[in-house]
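Colleagues,

For the teaching module next term, I've prepared a clean inverse folding example: a structure given as C-alpha cells, and then the sequence designed for it. I'd like students to try predicting residues themselves before seeing the answer, so please don't circulate the second half yet.
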C-alpha cells in the first residue's frame, strides 16, 4: 500500500521544488539588479509560502483535478524555464503572444535534444508523482490553519520590504516575466483579455475623400524580423544591400518599430495611431473607399482583413504556375499584371513577408543566396558558433535586398501609373548581443537591435517630394500611404506624412 502524504507536506515539497528548479533565473535577476541581499533573500522566501498557498488551495478545493492542474503547471514551468535559460528570454506577454502565434512547422527547430531531456526530467517524471501520490487532504480546520499561516508569512515578508516598492516597480516587467509559474499564468490571462478586445469590431474611422482620378499604385512591403544594424545601406560592414545600393533615388529612412513582436508590429504599421483599441486598419479603410487592395502573405498575425483580396502562399502558387512557393519570391508572382490589370485608379498591394524569421534563418532563402557560410539553423548551435547564425541571417538580408529590388524593377516597368514601394520591418532581431536571441523583449526595455528597423522608399520619378525626417515610427505608414494614393482623411496626420505639400 502506498504511504499517505499530508497535503501540507505535499504542498511544501512542491513549493521548494518549484523554487529550486524553476526560479533560479528569477533570483539571479534579482541578485544582479538589487542593491540589498536582504531583498533577494526575502524574494526567495516569499515564493515558498505563496506557492504553498496556491498549491494547497487548488488541491484542497479541486482534489484530483487540482493535482492534475498543479502537475500541468509543473510541466509548463519546465518548458518555460528551458526557454528562459537557453534563449535568455522571459515569459512576458510579448513572448507568450509570439508563442501562441507560432505555427507548428516554425516550432520544430526549437525542439532539440536538450529541450526534450529537460522536459522529461524536470516536467514529465515529477508529474507522475504529483498525480499519483496518495494525498490526505485533512480537515477544514487544517485547511484554515495552513492557508492562514502561509498568507500571514507572505504578508509579513512583504511588509518587511515595503520600502522596496520603487525597485520592484522599476523591474516589474522582468520580475513578472521570470517568476514561475506566475509569469505565464498571469500573462496568458492578459493575452486572452487583449485577444478578446482585439476580436471585437474595429472602430471605423471618419470617411475619406479620394481627391482625383490620377492612376497610382503603392506596394507596401512588411518585413519580418529585419534589423537595421545588418543592412549595408545603414553602414553594416558586409554588403547585404548589393542591389538596392545601386538604385537611384532610393530613400533610406531612420525608423523604429513601436513593438518587438509580429502581431503588435504589424498592427502599428496598419493603424493610424498607437492605441490599445483596434481602429480601422489601412487595407480595410482604403478598400471601403473603392481602392483596389490586395493582401499577399507568407506570414500571419495581422489584424482581421475585411474585404480586400487575401492571398496566401498556396493561393499564389495555384494562381501562378511554376512559381517556387518555398520562399518569399512567391509574393512577387504576377505583381505587374495585377497592377496593370486593375481598372481602379488607386491600387494598394501589401506584401507580408517572412524572410528573416528565426531561428532557422537558413531555411528562408533559395540556395543561390547563401553568400555567407557556414550557416547554422538553431540558436543552441549559435551559442557555440555565433558567426554561423549571423551568416544565415545576413543571407536573409541579401535575399530581401533582391526581392525589394525586383519589386522596384517591376514598378519601373509600369508606365501608366505613378508607383511607390515602401518597405518597413515589423520589428528588429537580436543575434546574440548580450546573450539575447530573436525578439519579443518588451519594447520599454528592449535592446536597440529589436526595434531599430530598416525602412526604404522608392517612387516613380516626380511622383512626390520626400521629406527628410530624422526618425520615423511605424505609424507614419498610414498617413504616407493615404497621401500617396491622394486620399484625404481627417485621420491623415501631416506630422506623420513622408511627403511635402
Ligand atoms: Zn515578426
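(Answer key — instructors only)
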Amino acid at each position: 500500500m502506498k504511504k499517505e502524504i499530508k497535503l501540507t507536506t505535499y504542498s511544501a515539497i512542491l513549493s521548494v521544488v518549484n523554487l529550486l528548479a524553476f526560479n533560479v533565473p528569477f533570483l539571479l535577476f534579482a541578485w544582479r539588479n538589487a542593491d540589498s541581499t536582504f531583498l533577494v533573500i526575502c524574494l526567495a522566501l516569499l515564493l515558498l509560502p505563496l506557492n504553498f498557498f496556491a498549491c494547497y488551495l487548488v488541491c484542497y478545493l479541486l482534489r484530483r483535478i487540482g493535482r492534475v492542474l498543479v502537475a500541468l503547471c509543473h510541466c509548463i514551468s519546465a518548458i518555460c524555464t528551458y526557454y528562459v535559460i537557453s534563449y535568455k528570454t522571459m515569459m512576458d506577454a510579448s513572448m507568450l503572444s509570439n508563442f501562441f502565434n507560432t505555427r507548428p512547422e516554425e516550432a520544430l527547430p526549437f525542439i532539440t535534444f536538450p529541450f526534450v531531456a529537460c522536459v522529461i526530467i524536470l516536467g514529465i517524471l515529477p508529474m507522475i508523482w504529483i498525480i499519483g501520490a496518495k494525498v490526505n487532504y485533512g480537515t477544514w480546520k487544517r485547511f484554515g490553519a495552513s492557508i492562514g499561516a502561509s498568507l500571514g508569512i507572505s504578508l509579513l515578508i512583504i511588509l518587511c520590504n515595503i520600502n522596496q516598492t520603487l525597485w520592484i516597480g522599476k523591474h516589474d516587467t522582468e520580475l513578472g516575466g521570470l517568476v514561475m509559474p506566475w509569469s505565464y499564468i498571469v500573462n496568458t490571462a492578459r493575452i486572452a483579455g487583449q485577444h478578446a478586445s482585439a476580436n471585437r469590431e474595429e472602430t471605423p474611422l471618419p470617411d475619406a475623400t479620394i481627391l482625383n482620378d490620377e492612376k497610382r499604385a503603392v506596394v507596401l512591403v512588411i518585413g519580418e524580423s529585419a534589423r537595421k544594424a545588418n543592412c549595408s545601406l545603414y553602414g553594416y560592414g558586409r554588403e547585404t544591400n548589393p542591389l538596392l545600393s545601386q538604385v537611384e533615388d532610393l530613400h533610406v529612412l531612420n525608423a523604429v518599430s513601436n513593438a518587438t513582436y509580429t502581431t503588435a508590429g504589424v498592427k502599428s504599421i496598419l493603424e493610424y495611431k498607437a492605441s490599445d483599441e483596434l481602429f480601422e486598419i489601412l487595407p480595410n479603410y482604403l478598400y471601403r473607399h473603392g481602392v483596389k487592395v490586395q493582401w499577399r502573405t507568407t506570414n500571419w498575425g495581422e489584424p482581421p482583413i475585411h474585404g480586400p483580396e487575401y492571398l496566401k502562399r498556396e493561393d499564389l502558387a495555384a494562381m501562378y504556375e511554376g512559381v517556387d512557393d518555398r520562399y518569399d519570391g512567391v509574393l512577387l508572382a504576377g505583381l505587374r499584371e495585377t497592377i496593370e490589370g486593375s481598372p481602379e485608379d488607386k491600387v494598394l498591394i501589401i506584401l507580408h513577408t517572412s524572410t528573416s524569421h528565426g531561428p532557422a534563418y537558413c531555411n528562408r532563402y533559395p540556395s543561390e543566396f547563401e553568400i555567407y557560410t557556414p550557416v547554422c539553423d538553431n540558436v543552441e548551435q549559435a551559442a557555440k558558433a555565433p558567426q554561423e547564425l549571423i551568416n544565415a541571417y545576413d543571407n536573409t538580408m541579401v535575399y530581401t535586398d533582391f526581392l525589394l529590388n525586383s519589386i522596384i524593377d517591376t514598378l519601373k516597368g509600369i508606365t501608366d501609373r505613378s508607383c511607390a514601394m515602401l518597405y518597413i520591418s515589423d520589428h528588429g532581431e537580436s543575434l546574440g548581443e548580450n546573450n539575447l536571441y530573436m525578439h519579443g523583449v518588451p519594447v520599454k526595455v528592449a535592446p536597440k537591435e529589436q526595434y531599430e528597423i530598416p525602412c526604404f522608399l522608392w517612387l516613380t520619378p516626380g511622383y512626390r517630394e520626400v521629406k527628410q525626417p530624422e526618425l520615423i515610427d511605424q505609424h507614419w505608414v498610414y498617413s504616407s500611404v493615404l497621401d500617396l494614393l491622394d486620399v484625404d482623411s481627417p485621420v491623415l496626420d501631416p506630422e506623420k506624412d513622408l511627403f511635402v505639400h
